[in-house]
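Reading a protein record of the kind used here takes only a little practice. The integers have meaning only within a learned vocabulary of local backbone shapes. With that in mind, consider the following protein and its fold in token form:
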Amino acid sequence: MLENDPRHKELLEWLKSQGHNDEQIARIMAKVAEYDSRTTRESLFDSIDSGRFDIQSLIDDALTDESTD
């Protein structure tokens, strides 16, 4: 689970530092969890650490969904 990964807190803090509110963060984290559940060979955080995953595209996707609700 994401909550058990020490980087989960770091991601939450980073999102807050980027100016996202609690509702936006919840939506972004839901997308992170969805992405992580589909990952079979490596975790989302390993992808971010290695630079192979663009966190901004996930954020944009989550916040685009917000405007259609």
About this structure: The mean pLDDT is 82. The chain has one domain: 2-67. The helical segments are 6-17, 22-38, 44-50, 55-67.
